[in-house]
Amino acid sequence: MPRLVGKFRFRAVARQLALGAAVLAVASFAVTAEAGTRRDDQTLAEIQVSKAMRAARLAAESEARASAPIVITPASTTPDAEPIETDATATKKKTTDTAGATSGDGVDDFPSVNPDAPIDDIQVPADLTEDVDDPLEPVNRLFFGLNEGLDFLVLRPVAIVYRTVVPKPVRIGVGNALRNAASPVILANDILQGADGKRVEATMVRFMLNSTIGVGGLIDVGSYVGLDFHREDFGQTLATWGVGPGPYMVAPILGPGNPRDFVGVVVDTAINPMTWILADEKFWIRMAPSAAEMISTREVALDDVDALRKTSPDFYVTVRQLYSEKRRTDIANGDVGLDPIPGTTSLPPTQMTPTVNPF
Question: What residue spans define the domains of the chain?
Fold first, then answer.
């Protein structure tokens, strides 16, 4: 009888995982077919930035032309006569170069810009034009809008109530416990990636210290002894094995990602001990850890996400870029140097995934 019960539990969980994988596969096929007819247009944010840069350069060029050097040519019939420059024009020449090169005093001048040139010919800052493969953008924007609506109606209000009702020390403890519960998955991916012994050892020792002395992970004892937290997942593992990310995708509820990372979510869920511990519990109990992580991480990012929404000309483009930067940094184990996000206080790109994708 116990063997039959165990077999039933395994089959129930296997059916759930298979159903989830099938839903993701159908969704991927649908959005790929929809995006087959999409033209590769520039995003609104890139166009706005391009226009702004063009206007600035044209203004600078007009000013330079208006104050061009005054050259006095002597009345001589000698063809090789040299022009005479006044002191004022000599000084001006140091800071103005008609070819757009670096001036004499080290100031970079604006190059000549053709006002009739197409926008594609104008340079756009690299942080907005870094190559992100997004052939499914129309459907991605649809799902992005759906997730924004869910966030506005459900997740953000719950996070505000959570911040208001629960004291900060308790919220910190909950966040510590959630990170500690992820340690078995992190350890498995550390090993699969062939990480150095120190990284594997740090994950193991952190988990043991936090689970015992740290009262089930509520207190981050590991950080106190110099063992900083790091996160690994199967999406990163696939990247270290040479698997490409595929096109950028936005999934309902799950948020931004790509085929490689969504496969990683399925595998990480399958190897997570909590999946099997709670396999026979009611649905709301099985979902409790994921819901707690979503609410906790959303509360941490309340102020910064609001600031990004207000300052971003296109919030979809901002989230897409932040996700790409975050994943590159994760895969490189923090070796990719990125500046903090303007207008935020606590979320540099290396910490944005829990905000826009709590899983």
Answer: 44-129, 135-165+233-356
